[in-house]
Every structure is written in C-alpha cells, then in structure tokens.
C-alpha cells in the first residue's frame, strides 16, 4: 500500500524520506521521531508493529525528548497489519 502512496506523492511533487533498517537503531525508540523532527516530515507512514512497540514501552517522543519538534507532522499512516484500537488512542496522545 505504501508503494502506491509513494508514487502518488512523487507525482504531485513531494519529497520522500525512505528508511531502511531497524526503526530502533541507532537511538532506540526515538530514532524515527528524531528523524521526523530533523527533516520536518509532514506525513509519516510506518508499521502497526512499530507503533505497538512504542505503546508497549510507553514511549512518548515529545515527553521523552522535549527538544523534538514534531509540529510539522500532519498525519501518521499505519500499514502492514491491523492497528489495535488502543494503539490508535496511544498514537493520538503520544504525537500531539
């Protein structure tokens, strides 16, 4: 599914940030949130498993690292597997 979104985004002139490897390297649970902050990402697509791992470990990026600026983030997209309702609520609160 993300492949199709990526092609559509490129077709309208967007830039893509593709991340290959463990979402927990090199800075643990905050690796991807740090990247989102540094690159001022507006739309973030990730796996339900990653978001569920954040929930299981109660990782709240802005609370855990106040220097992160996620104010540019407009949407988070989940793919690969179903997102549990509790994780949806967690993401809604953890990424203000």
TrEMBL record:
SUPFAM superfamilies: Acetyl-CoA synthetase-like. Residues 1-21 form the signal peptide. InterPro entries: ANL_N_sf. One of its GO terms (molecular function) is acetoacetate-CoA ligase activity. Keywords: Signal. Coiled coil: none annotated. This is AMP-dependent synthetase/ligase domain-containing protein. It comes from Verticillium longisporum (Verticillium dahliae var. longisporum). The lineage of its organism: Eukaryota, Fungi, Dikarya, Ascomycota, Pezizomycotina.
């Amino acid at each position: 599914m993300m492949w199709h979104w990526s092609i559509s985004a490129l077709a309208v002139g967007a830039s893509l940030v593709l991340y290959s490897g463990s979402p927990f390297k090199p800075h643990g649970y905050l690796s991807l949130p740090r990247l989102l902050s540094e690159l001022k990402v507006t739309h973030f697509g990730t796996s339900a498993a990653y978001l569920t791992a954040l929930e299981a470990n109660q990782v709240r990026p802005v609370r855990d690292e106040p220097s992160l600026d996620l104010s540019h983030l407009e949407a988070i997209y989940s793919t690969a597997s179903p997102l549990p309702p509790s994780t949806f609520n967690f993401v809604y609160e953890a990424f203000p």
